């Protein structure tokens, strides 16, 4: 069985820049997975600081209203990994999940950490590179011309342990044209 893990589709993150393309791709993948009966698991990052937009009492930390109805399960997390001190693995085991697909935000933190943690726990992992996004840029890392999604996708792919695909490759594998 498969599960789609949709990482941190939260209002605050999605308000940081135009993520129209990423949102469309994520929605398409959600619809495909739903139609196949795969479990759709969303994560929500929370922080205790009263000033944080990810404070549990702040609406900006909630899952964006465009996506909340797709959620079968919601995992609350406090670190970049959706597995660390959460109930995600319990949900996966209870549903006989042995394969996860990762999409969402931020590519170089929560998506990457969750993909690696899933692999470390024995799951087959597929990372849909162009269905992830980040609020950061090459300026954030002081690295001219850095393509964050491409770098993370390349590193995960080169590991030989995590399957990294673009949406069109995912559609081909799912026999969707």
Automatic annotation (TrEMBL):
Molecular function (GO) terms for this protein are:
hydrolase activity
- Give the originating organism: Clostridium senegalense
Superkingdom of the source species: Bacteria
Q: Which family does it belong to?
A: Belongs to the isochorismatase family.
| Domain Isochorismatase-like as annotated: residue spans | 3-142
Q: Does the keyword Hydrolase apply?
A: yes
Write the record's keywords in alphabetical order, separated by commas.
Hydrolase
This protein is called what? Isochorismatase family protein
